[in-house]
Fold this sequence. Notes:
Blueprint: H1 30-35, E1 37-38, E2 46-48, E3 51-53, E4 55-67, E5 71-77, E6 82-88, H2 91-96, H3 114-128, E7 136-146, E8 149-159, H4 166-183, H5 198-223, E9 227-228, H6 230-233, H7 238-247, H8 257-275, E10 278-279, E11 289-291, H9 296-309, H10 313-316, E12 320-321, H11 322-332, H12 339-351, E13 355-359, E14 362-365
Parallel strand pairs: 6-8
Antiparallel strand pairs: 1-2, 2-3, 4-5, 4-7, 5-6, 7-8, 9-11, 10-11, 12-14, 13-14
Helix pairs in contact: 5-8, 9-11
Amino acid sequence: MAxxxxxxxELPSMLWGLDPVFSxxxxxxxxxxxxxxxxxxxxxxxxxxxxxxxxxxxxxxxxYKRERDDFYCYGVDDSTGVIxxxxxxxxxxxxxxxxxxxxxxxxxxxxxNIEDELRRLKEAEQKSTVxxxxxxxxxxxTVKTSRDAREISATSFYKVNDPAMAVQISRMLEMPQLYxxxxxQPSQKPGxxxxxxEAGGSSRFHYLLSRSVLTLKEFFLEKEVARFRxxxxxxxxxxxxxxxxxxxxxxxxxxxxxxxxxxxxxxxLSVLQEEGQIFRKIRAQDEVYNVTExxxxxxxxxxxxxxxxxxxxxxxxxxxxxxxxxxxxRQRYSQNLSREVLEIALTFLECNSDIISTKESHYTVx
Length: 366
């Protein structure tokens, strides 16, 4: 059997967890999912370039459909290729069948009725998981190969209502950036030297960068940091550079410790901004960063927008779309706010039961 030229770049499986792509649902083009090479070490894990992948997130149009007793089989087309998606039915929904009537016939006249609300929620959930040809489907799941064909076994899936194509356009703009900044970048190789060859130095730096990002995230969470300046957190990266230098068997002349710290901190802050974890409310010479999950002023502004706009008839029923919220916040809070920042803040508020998502990318205040 011919040797796969990509095998030489396959990291040992014990190091896969160091790659943040491995534990995430990777937003890859379907053509790349179909062409990924399966790992020679662990069946069911695939490699896009040097990144180990087994979970993906796809969005596309349903081009064919088959139904079985336990699952739907949808063919999803994202314009780069078509992949088969096995979407398992909810057993509870099937068992409950047509039992949709409330046990309290007078409950609806008394205002809020929990059984009616649960019934409506269940009906909405069922409608979102039964699609027809031409519907837009989002699927998250694991990649598998069955009968020499690549497919996705869904862990979650739902119909996306996107009449204005806002979701599709947003994803179309996001994907090239993900590829350029993440998937097409080399995976971490902790054994390489930071100050060695160009390829080795790059891999070592990516390894340090992933550790640096994790260090700052943990620090923000533990200390409940709301805002900071770069020199406030610089000391946290000192041990990373020091341990990296200690691991090198030979100390060759290279960049100074201060320069390494400065470069690592700059890239770390850039990654955190791209993820939406931090942002700069005001672009000024005084470099101040806000931590998204700890910025109470931002949270208040979001709730104010939802509270005011959901009173209008246009948004009363389904809530405000994330792009509408973003536009309002850029006018009243910060012009520098990104969608990534907003989505992290919305998720945080929803987890704290301050707001609720009514449908795909729509929110209302509780």
